[in-house]
Amino acid sequence: MDISSTKGSGAPLTDNEKLMVIKQEIIDWLHAHDIAFSDELRKPELLELVRMNKEKVPFACVKIAEQYEHEVNFTLPYHCELQPIEVVWSVVKGEVARSSPHPNLLSVRNTLLNAFKEKISSKVIVGLWRRAIKNTKEYFESDENIQFTDDEFDAYSSFDDDHVI
């Protein structure tokens, strides 16, 4: 059933009717996949069932890695010790917060761009990346199930001129 469909009279569906159509589509999907559920479940609970039972499609990088008998391990999202971009954003947002009040979004944009130019050099990015690799190595070393050779990490950690914010 199309959410944008109209009633038999040609009048558009109300928001409540659209929500009912969406819920019915979720129910139909669950039935089509032979997933048992209670009729008393609400839409969020039904969506959670779909999420739990939906086929996981691997990222292309995982498929490529598997072709070469490698394994991809994902780090925690938004983790400042493992995701260098989090430190970059922290610095840039700090610059925006410390600057004078902004009369409009263009002013905020210009302050962001200037902060990137003035505070985030390639040397800083390399330093942050090396720090993230070092932290990742420490996390992996604390996990006895993961085996890495030091060569995989040493190629990135042999520089003395790391420049970190």
Summarize the structure.
The protein is mainly alpha-helical and 165 residues long.
Explain what you see.
- GO terms for molecular function: nucleic acid binding.
- This is Tc1-like transposase DDE domain-containing protein.
- It comes from Rhizophagus irregularis.
- The protein is mainly alpha-helical.
- It has a domain at 74-150.
- Helices cover 58% and strands 0% of the residues.
- It has helices at 15-32, 43-53, 60-67, 84-98, 105-119, 122-141, 150-157.
- Helix 1 (15-32) packs parallel to helix 2 (43-53), helix 4 packs across helix 5 and helix 4 (84-98) crosses helix 6.
- The chain is flat and about 65 Å long.
Q: Which key terms come to mind for this protein?
A:
mainly alpha
User: Based on helices, strands and strand pairing, what is the structural class?
Assistant: mainly alpha
Query: Which oligomeric form is depicted?
Result: single chain
* Uncertain spans: 149-160
Q: What is the strand tally?
A: 0
Overall geometry: flat
Order of helices and strands: HHHHHHH
| H/I helix tally | 7
Helix content: 55-70%
| Radius of gyration, whole Å | 25 Å
Q: Which strand-content bin applies to the residues?
A: under 5%
| Biggest sheet layout | none
SSE blueprint and pairings:
Blueprint: H1 15-32, H2 43-53, H3 60-67, H4 84-98, H5 105-119, H6 122-141, H7 150-157
